[in-house]
Design a protein that fits this description.
By secondary structure, this protein is mainly beta. 3% of the residues lie in helices and 43% in strands. A hairpin with a 5-residue loop joins strand 20 and strand 21.
């Protein structure tokens, strides 16, 4: 039912598939996750000034039920807006472009990528391995203003998939699954000594998953081990009109929580907590009862006092929570809530850590989340047409911003600083992509 894209990531680093992933098709299954696919040669930095779309939206009572199939979706129990409420704006007035980089042909070979922004404003730049020329990943710290790259010493990554979990002024920490789901390594780069060290954790159970790993404010890495997978109904999932499985209102998966030190492989701690999805803010830990399905309740623990409270997030009756992120006193839940005829009910539900509803962005083909300590919710609209592309929701002003009308078949991401964000657009007939780093203006 669900196509796991992890193996695609591993397979294409040295010999990429001949075609891009259709993100609209990927989103068509309720529980599928859109993951990065690597595959191109980067040809240089491109400095571009583009006209972009931005919309100012006030709350509450925004949007209206429109005639036609979209109106058949259940209305969320919250102030609700849609992607079509966006209006145009221009670069320089609503946001600025900090850096761009273009890979012309990702279908042909692996390429070069933006993997995040350090606390002092440098881009972690990855030059992926390529078949027949270089089989090792290279990393650099790139100055977004000049494009100058400080190439780091070889970390010994080979062709491993990496995920940045900390991009600090003094150290960089990357997670790698070493090509397996059963052995993780943290690669730590000391920026003062310019040296790498590695840490792994033989004491972790083999059921621990790389997806969902979160760095806590205490500097420990929090990870989940699967203990209860959501069951498929007897007879399988019902079928949509296009023949795909309709798995709205899935049961959800349950996990056990662990934490580890990033520098001491023997420091493995059982947190004695059952969770679904997890997230952290500067002063709180948040979790759901289940993940990738019916989420249950949302729980909030004050990290200073240890006090906890929980609340019903008032999801729709059929909503699967596929993404769970938080920043400050805001929670962002990315949800698939069923398909009605040929129209999907996808939602980005934004609420406070007290359980108050802020706004729900509801449309056919929308998913996204917020970075830790960020004011910018980044959302992708996958439906073809005027509402496709990348959107921002400004948590400071309650504005919905339409940044780009097209998305590439490849994604770009990683941590950014407050008010900064990544997006990606297609080039060369969709065979390549341009990565963008922007900053929302006040």
């Amino acid at each position: 039912m669900v196509n796991d894209l992890k193996q695609l990531l591993r397979d294409n680093v040295s010999s990429p598939p001949g075609d891009g992933i259709d993100l609209g098709e990927v989103l068509a299954s309720g529980r599928r996750r859109v993951r990065r696919r690597r595959g191109v040669v980067g040809l240089g930095a491109v400095v571009a000034a583009a006209t972009v779309a931005v919309v100012a939206v006030g709350l509450p009572g925004l949007g209206s039920d429109r005639a036609g199939p979209a109106a058949q979706r259940p209305r969320p129990d919250a102030p609700t807006i849609r992607l079509s409420d966006a209006q145009r704006a221009s670069v320089g007035r609503d946001y600025e472009v900090l850096a761009t980089y273009t890979n012309r042909d990702l279908d042909a070979a692996n390429g070069q990528y933006f993997d995040g922004v350090t606390d002092d404003g440098l881009i972690l730049f990855q030059d992926g391995p390529r078949d027949g020329t270089r089989l090792r990943t290279r990393l650099a710290l790139m100055d977004p203003a000049t494009g100058t790259k400080d190439w780091l010493p070889d970390a010994g990554l080979g062709q491993d998939n990496i995920r940045p979990v900390q991009l600090g002024r003094h150290r960089i920490v990357l997670l790698s699954d070493n090509g397996t789901a059963e052995h993780w390594t943290a690669y730590t780069f000391d920026r003062e000594t310019r040296s790498w060290s590695t840490t792994d954790w033989p004491g972790l159970p083999r059921t621990v998953e790389l997806d969902g790993a979160q760095l806590g404010p205490d500097g420990r890495l929090y990870v989940r081990s699967l203990v209860r997978a959501g069951e498929i109904p007897d007879g399988g999932w019902p079928k949509q009109e296009d023949g795909d499985a309709e798995d709205a209102d899935a049961q959800g998966d349950g996990y056990h929580l662990w934490s580890v030190s990033l520098s001491d492989g023997s420091d493995v701690r059982d947190e004695q907590l059952s969770v679904g999805a997890i997230a952290f803010t500067d002063d709180a830990m948040l979790w759901t009862d289940r993940a990738d399905g019916d989420a249950g309740r949302v729980h909030v623990r004050d990290l200073a006092t240890g006090t906890e409270h929980s609340f019903d997030p008032h999801l729709g009756a059929r909503c699967n929570v596929l993404g769970f992120t938080a920043s400050g006193d805001r929670i962002v839940m990315s949800e698939y809530c069923g398909t009605y005829g040929k129209v999907r009910d996808d939602r980005l539900q934004i609420l406070t850590t007290s359980g108050d509803q802020v706004v729900t962005i509801q449309d056919d083909g929308v998913a996204g989340g917020v970075g830790a300590d960020s004011d910018v919710v980044v959302a992708d609209g996958y439906r073809q047409g005027d509402d496709s592309g990348t959107y921002l929701y400004d948590l400071r002003t309650n504005r919905l911003l339409h940044i780009a009308h097209r998305m590439s078949h490849w994604s770009v991401g990683g941590p950014t600083r407050r008010n900064e964000f990544f997006w990606h657009t297609p080039v060369n007939g969709g065979r390549g992509a341009t990565w963008w780093l922007g900053k929302l203006l006040d």
